[in-house]
Amino acid sequence: MLTTIQQPFFIVVFILLGSCMIACLIAAIRGPELGDRIVAANMIGTLTIAAICLLSYALKESWLLDVALIYTMISFLAVVVLTRIFIRRYKSRAKEQEKG
């Protein structure tokens, strides 16, 4: 699997990815604006994809790259949908302020 030199490196990288995911999760929960939450959710998806790719290399399992590609597409679609919701909400608030 991994050489003696690679094992500590991968452990450190996975710990860093995990801590970044936790920080992004906190940002997604606490984010003052909806846009901040969307960016944090997208970052969690990106970090998850990176973790899956690194895991694929560490385990020498190429099928995990297929999983990462599918997850990438799903993450992209989720961000597109959330962005459309954000734009609709912004436009409706702008119309309300314009009227009132």
Structure description:
- This protein starts with 5 loop residues before the first helix and ends with a helix.
- The longest helix has 37 residues.
- It has 100 residues and is an all-alpha fold.
- The protein has one domain: Helix Hairpins (Orthogonal Bundle), CATH 1.10.287.
- It is built from three helices and no strands.
- The radius of gyration is 18 Å and the shape is elongated.
Contiguous low-pLDDT stretches (5 residues minimum) are: none
Beta-strand residue fraction: under 5%
Oligomeric organization of the protein chains: single chain
Helix and strand composition category: mainly alpha
Cα distance spanning the termini: 65 Å
Q: What name does the CATH topology carry? A: Helix Hairpins
CATH architecture: Orthogonal Bundle
The run of helices and strands is HHH
Helix content: over 70%
The total beta strand count reads: 0
Number of domains: 1
Any idea of the CATH class?
A: Mainly Alpha
Rg (C-alpha, Å): 18 Å
Give the overall pLDDT as a whole number: 92
Shape descriptor: elongated
Largest sheet: none
| DSSP helical segment count | 3
Summarize the structure.
By secondary structure, this protein is mainly alpha-helical. It has helices at 6-30, 34-59, 63-99.
Topology:
Elements: H1 6-30, H2 34-59, H3 63-99
Helix pairs in contact: 1-2, 2-3
What descriptive keywords fit this protein?
100 residues, Helix Hairpins, 88% helix
